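BACKBONE GEOMETRY TOKENS
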Amino acid sequence: MTTRVAIYARVSTTNHGQDAGLQTGELREFGEARCWRLADEYVDSGVSGSKDSRPELNRLMADAKRRKFDVVLVWKLDRFGRSLRHLVNALAEFESLGIAFVSLSDNLDLSTASGRLMFNIIGSMAEFERELIRERVKAGMKNAKAKGARIGRPRVTVDASQIARLRDSGASMREIAARLGVSLGTVAACSKRLPRRASVVA
């Protein structure tokens, strides 16, 4: 069977001499040299690589799930991936779908043993990046606590006497919570600390 290839290209701006045609031209030549049949071209022009949503990339991922091609061919990894994490997730999805991934300039072909090794290295780098972010967050929270900042949800101050009056008037805990703008658990906790006569449910 003839291998079907999908070409993806991206340029972040179109008014500084960048032309997606330079990428697609090289990619077509590469595909023809391997006797691959062009299934479709996906080109995002004037789209930043950091954007969460790219129309043509979204279309490519949707077509991948429909098995419309066997290989995804890109000019360079940074033209495709939004981030290291996105790249790893996308490549893992292609692998699960049985779709090969080739980056021309990076000499990366995930259908080969060396390419799969590179994928494992990229995955390890992504995990390392996640650990660094976690450590930075922990260090930031620790530093903020040392400076007296309160971490987490703001503490809600409730007037126990107000709860007592409302309970004595016959209001249920749910009604009190809604009236005071606090959680049902907060009202229940305060009610337990009130004298028995104020905690009687009407």
